[in-house]
Amino acid sequence: MSHRAAPEHTHPDDVPLLTALSALADPVRIQILRELAGSQEWTRTCGSFDVDVRKAALSHHFAVLRGAGVVEQKDEGARRFNRLRGEEFGTRFPGLLELVLRGD
User: Fold this and answer.
1) Cβ contact 90:97 at 8 Å
2) How far is CA 40 from CA 45, 52, 74, 87, 95, in A?
3) Which parts of the sequence belong to the HTH arsR-type domain (predicted)?
4) What is the reported pTM?
5) pLDDT tens-place values along the chain, 104 residues long
């Protein structure tokens, strides 16, 4: 039986601006963030997002979002749940996430 490693997280305070901008520039990641923003914390599993990418690509997108400090994940059994780190990310990059979520 294989166990997957717990995801590594980067705190937004440790994220360079260009890393954050790069993470927020992809349409699939923006869709993930918009869906997370409209959901209760820790209620969305990775497979519950309405994005048209394969599982491996979706895993990559979540890794980029974690690395940019925008998303936090936790495992419960075989499922991985997500939450938007809006407050922490907003402290580091005031207004940036809101602009992306608005779609202006």
Assistant:
1) yes
2) 12, 22, 14, 14, 21
3) 9-104
4) 0.90
5) 445 666 788 999 999 999 999 999 999 999 999 999 999 999 999 999 999 999 999 999 999 999 999 999 999 999 999 999 999 999 999 999 999 999 86
